[in-house]
Amino acid sequence: MSPTLKSRELYERAEAAFKQANPCLLCPRACGVNRLSGERGYCGAGPLPRVAGTMPHGGEEPVLTGTGGAGTIFFSECNLHCVYCQNHQISQGGLGSEISTEELAREFLGLQAAGCVNIEPVSPSHYLPWFLEALAHSVEQGLNLPVVYNTNAYESKDTLEILDGVVDVYLPDLKYADEAKALLYSHAKEYVQMARAAVIRMRRQVGRVTLDHNGNAVKGLIVRHLILPDDVSGTRDTLYWLADNLPPSTSLSLMAQYSPLHNACAYPGLNRVISESEYEAAVSLAWELGFTNVFIQEPAAQVMGIPDFTEATPFCWDGP
Description:
Shape: globular
Low-confidence stretches: none
Strand content: 15-25%
Mean pLDDT: 94
């Protein structure tokens, strides 16, 4: 499997994305700052991509890890500021180093050489132009892995149009079903409206998940949903919306790994892990609604899935 577009076309997409960064309209916030001259909007990202780590990651969904791990690139900064973010050290804490697109391309190639089964940028939207340019560089040098776009789903229509044909597998986390809660806990205006529209567009672009002969995902949509305590995430409403708008063959990943990190303990209802019954209710509802492809997490994810980006190996389950 290789990226859908050739390097020349990827450079053209990168050029279109750079225009979206000056003024910056890369995400629904549309801050309008001049990223190329060093201005920083809500996300805090500057004129070069800041990366906190690249690694083979063994903790993603099985169809994304294979035997060699997912080739994850953890970008710093984020267009959401979730009060409970498990990656807060890099999304809001400033960890990471700025690198050139040439260096980023070498990281992609290094992940391929290490045996990773894909290239998976994590929260890449605010660095989209640089990511695409690095992808073009690496394709010229022999990169032939599928691209898995790991996103919080707060994506703009124009950005997704640029990504059409670039992304092989979309991996959005559909976080909320209530706009007021999205604003309170992630400081995101119109999150539900924008994220749901994005998921529909993603499905139109890539369809259902297809696997290669090794059982690795090479195309398709996997919708993640992080279940929060006291139904802050609106799990029931989200699952009903998905059932009404996507086919039952859509792959769902119901995540049990929530832990009250960062500033979560300051918010009543978020200061505990989810219960076994809360998680089982979500899984049961997914089956009742007819979904046929559901990824289920073990309770141990509440500990093993929490990274420490000050360590060389941030996750307990890193490695194939």
